[in-house]
Design goal:
By secondary structure, this protein is mainly alpha-helical. Helices cover 73% and strands 0% of the residues. It folds into 2 domains: 66 residues; 60 residues.
Length: 141
């Protein structure tokens, strides 16, 4: 019989495994819509990618069955996806601000043409990030 400490360790390990699976799943999705800016090259065949997804599902199924078998309650702190997205969008806004001419001065002086080019890039991207923030704000309330 498992003690409460063993059960806690088992649940914590399963939560850790779930985090790793959740980090890997988007990588598989990236392969379906590759970006030249991605740091990962999709070198999996469709059948290999499906096998990985199926294996992830089986791992989750076994973990849940184990938790049920040992009557281990799933007591996991969850954070709303909306909050996570809003926080990430704030990070995008900060990253765009870091592209400003004043911040890039640390890389060397910009001439006027370079300054205008950097401002143009910011002006093109900022409305899209702002739209994402607006959408999540509308949805939240």
């Amino acid at each position: 019989m498992l003690s409460p400490t063993h059960k806690s360790a088992l649940l914590n390990t399963f939560v850790h495994i779930e985090r790793r699976l959740s980090e890997m799943e988007p990588l598989l999705a990236q392969g379906k819509r590759p970006s030249p800016l991605s740091q990962h090259l999709n070198d999996l065949s469709p059948s290999e990618a499906k096998a990985v997804v199926d294996c992830f599902a089986r791992i989750r199924s076994i973990m849940l069955a184990c938790l049920e078998k040992h009557r281990i309650p799933i007591d996991v702190h969850q954070v709303g996806l909306r909050w996570t997205l809003q926080t990430s969008m704030q990070s995008l806004s900060i990253a765009l601000a870091e592209l400003g001419p004043e911040r890039l001065r640390g890389c060397g002086d910009l001439d006027e043409a370079g300054r205008q080019e950097v401002l143009s890039i910011q002006q093109e991207l900022e409305p899209l990030v702002g739209l994402l923030r607006k959408v999540s704000a509308i949805c939240s309330g």
